[in-house]
Amino acid sequence: MSEFAEPGSENEGQPSQPTSWWRLQLPRLIDVVLTASISATLACLTLIVVGLMFGLKESGSAADWLATIFNGVVAIAAVAAFIVARSWLPQLTTQEGYKTAIQLVNDQYIQLGEAHSPAAAVEKAMAAFNNSAIAGLQTNLDSYNDAMRQLEIELQAARQNWEEIKNYRFCLHTYGLIETPRYKADLETMLTAYETSLPLGEGLLTSLNSDLTRRRAAKNKSELITSDGNEIWRTRLAADGQKLNADYVKYIAAISKIRVSHAKVFSDHPTIGKLFKVRK
Question: Looking at the structure, do residues 106 and 79 belong to the same domain, yes or no?
């Protein structure tokens, strides 16, 4: 997925009417006028100070005047800094919010599409499980074990990704950004399905680990090959396999919902300004 540009890069987001343009530009013009007025005032005060220093430097009253004027200069400078900072703070906050939104989409949301890694790892693990079930108790379990370890790694990464998504969304809200109405429902569906998929995947991993452990135990007991115990073990493994397949179906259903919602949002590659907006 290509990186998302910051809002304002497309023509559709710019005001088309003269009145709208003036409405947007007026605060900036006021800031310019205010800054110029304050600068002129400071320049005048500086000239007055210089005059007093040369004309009244021997008088005690001159020192009082100088102290008063300097205090006034400091006060005016403080007020000017406050006004300018207050006028620019919302714009800077929004800018940082959109930077965070770009990171959320490009680093976290991108992982929830067709290339969702845990889904691929689950398919490999289930294929290894089915191969072992068909081959019998004495089959080699190395590929099964390797698939299980990879699934465990991918599920841990998915859990970490979910925690990062929550942190990013919390930051977006503090910056005053929310999802736009056009994409809000699909994004919520995608994230709800993702959150649901995590315990389902972890439960499936637990079931697969249990099956693998039992198959290892059965493989180390040569008497199971010819005794009646062999049938008991096979029956137990078959029952576990039915539950395991049921868990797999639930997990894949959640993954499918993630992918469908992800495609609805990102298939047309919306800009970041279309995905998020400033909260009113």
Answer: no
